[in-house]
Write a structure and sequence with these properties.
about 100 residues; mainly beta; three-stranded antiparallel β-sheet; 1 helix; globular
Length: about 100
């Protein structure tokens, strides 16, 4: 969950805490080529950089290997976890929405 000031709220099983993330790069590819990489709900850890010096991990739950509306994933940094459900995925508009669960 993003909050003002570039912070992201992460849940560690007990409480939410804010971490600051600011990362930007220029990618020499088309928007559609980039979407093929970043538009995967279950594979964000493959391309996302570190947050506060910590590697992130993502994993789709339930043993599924592809994205679909309703899919759930765990997103984690160190001992902080977020559980999200994919609520909208549109490859034409290149948008993805998720809800914290």
């Amino acid at each position: 969950m993003e909050v003002p000031g570039g912070n992201i709220l992460l849940y560690n099983g007990v409480a939410f805490s804010a971490v600051h993330s600011r990362n930007s790069i220029v990618i020499p590819f088309s928007d559609k080529d980039c979407w093929r990489i970043v538009g995967s709900f279950g594979r964000q850890a493959l391309w996302m950089g570190e947050v506060e010096g910590q590697h992130i991990f993502t994993q789709l739950l339930g043993g599924v290997e592809h994205d679909y509306v309703g899919a759930c994933r765990v997103f984690g940094i160190a001992d902080k976890l977020i559980f999200e459900q994919l609520t909208r995925l549109d490859d034409e508009e290149m948008v993805m929405y998720g809800a914290l669960t």
